[in-house]
Amino acid sequence: MSTTEPAIALSGLRKTFGAVEAVAGIDLEIADGEFFSMLGPSGSGKTTVLRMIAGFELPTAGTVWLSGRDVTRQAPYERDVNTVFQDYALFPHLSVLENVEYGLKVRKVARRERRARAEAALESVRLPGFGGRKPSAMSGGQRQRVALARALVNRPRVLLLDEPLGALDLKLREQMQVELKQIQRDVGITFVFVTHDQDEALTMSDRVAVFDSGRIAQVGTPEEVYEHPATPFVAGFVGTSNLLRGDAARQLIGREGTFSVRPEKIELTEGAGNGTVAEVIYAGPVTRFVVDLDAGARMVVVEQNRRTGKSTLSQMRGKRVQLTWQDEHVIEIGVNHAS
Amino acid sequence: MTLSPSARWALRAVMALGLFFIYVPLLLVLVNSFNGDRTFGWPPHDFTTRWWTAAWNNGGARDALWTSVKAGLGATAIALVLGTMIAFAVQRYKFFGRDTVSLLVVLPIALPGIVTGIALDSAWRSVIAPLGLGKGLFSVVVGHATFCVVTVYNNVLARLRRSGVSFEEASADLGASPGQTFRYITFPMIRSALLAGGLLAFALSFDEIIVTTFTAGPGIQTLPIWIFNNLFRPNQAPVVNVVAAVLIVLSVLPVWLAQRVAGPEAGASRT
How far apart are CA A206 and CA A210, in angstroms? Predict the structure, then answer.
């Protein structure tokens, strides 16, 4: 945060595997101390970008800078970054403590110091006293934290996380999201977090880059990305999009263009209206209604389950309804309202 | 799968018969090495350790044993180095002709020993001997190494397939140089595969006779060859029995060890 150089800068980054272009030209700057997420479906190139920052893949073209230094051709062990791998990659033949102190050991830190630092790192991820165990004797969530401690103990400038929560169940994942964010604030290290989970990206990040077919479709704060998606792809991938285009746009918005209204911004009232309920999906706290508009668009509406009186949910299917929304909640895609 | 009782009995009988024909003759050799009768009259009448003493004092047998050990160690050493290197190349890198290399490495174990033997013999005569390196112990070592490489290669390859590259990437990511990664991560993970492959290689070399016949230089006699040469000399027969008994024990040992070493870890691919 104090230095003027960005922690990571990528310029013109490309990577092809045979005939497949996995990364098709990325320009990006990530500030020091930022919690930055790379969000995208599998195969969108986000993990390849991460692996090029770590040094596991050599870019076909382009440059990787770490704190202003060109590291494009440097080996992984020459770079001041550490990675938390998707499968954790804890060394099975070493104990948890030996795993955590590995980075210090290969850098020739004296035995006593590295023991102390490794134990402190285990404490910081709430695993004190687990050092003697083998990784195989730990649960998924614990292994994940060991992997985090193993990376953080080296005090890297940048920590890369490759879908580190993917293997955990929902409850644990939500808990780890909070913990990760806390740890990042405590240590002040730049986190680059790769995920295909939009909730994860939105809840944890300072900024998000949305990847689409090897390119960055949009970079912005979670709010910008969600409220003002730059492309139909972003609108669809981050949240549910409810796209209005062509005829439907002309009739409902009154203008040419591609528009989107988020499901939670739409009001649904029964009675003669502008659409028919096609599907009702009960999801605990909320219910999702799929409504076919007469204007020729299919919209998803999310409603808190606070209905009283009116028809029961199962009776709603096939009913005529009126959908209404505020003008300010209409997103015109491709037009940036953010700045 | 459930089988009818009669089928189960039939299978048991076949298994017993198979094991009988494999192990009873071996047992016979062991018993006969203590048989007091020079012509191995059956059943044995008296017990003696005479032949064991005679074998111990037999200079030819002892020299042959020593030669076999040297050849086995030499072939195993070559197999360990080359087998490991090829396994790494094939498993970790993509290159032109990779599958061919893999096939060429495995082929010698399937090739009839007599073919390997003849080929090596003529190669040695026409190519290597003119360069000033005649046949001797070294040519035996090379001959054995051709098929010993396979055992190490297969063991290491299987281990590498299971462990993948992520551990090595993690090690490099944590700042370890390639040398450190090999020392702290890769080697410990393939150590038991190397041991298992090496023991099998030694066992293969130790009882090899055909390739040895064609590649041994003058005066080089491995133990199996010594046995073969002495088998039909009536006064040597009891000593041959003792040596065979020793060989049985010596060959069972490494195979048993290799299985124990490879066994417990083979099933568990832990992360």
Answer: 13
- From B89's Cα to the closest Cα of chain A, the distance in A is 18
Contact B271 A90 (CB under 8 A): yes
Nearest CA in chain A to B165: A89
Would you state the pLDDT for residue A311? 63
- Rounded distance between C-alpha atoms, residue B257 and residue B249, angstroms: 12
pLDDT digits (tens, 9 = 90+) for B103-129: 999 888 888 889 989 999 999 888 888
- pLDDT number for residue B262: 62
Q: Which of A190, A218, A186, A213 is nearest to A202 (CA)?
A: A218
Which positions in chain A touch B268 (Cβ < 8 Å)?
136
Q: Which CATH superfamily is domain B50-264 in?
A: MetI-like (1.10.3720.10)
Cα dihedral B63→B65→B69→B70 (10° resolution): 20
Architecture of the structural domain at A8-236:
3-Layer(aba) Sandwich (3.40)
Kindly report whether the global pTM for this prediction surpasses the value 0.80.
Answer: no
3-class DSSP assignment, residue A8: strand
Determine the CATH number of domain A243-332.
2.40.50.100
Predicted pLDDT at A3: 52
ipTM value for the complex: 0.81
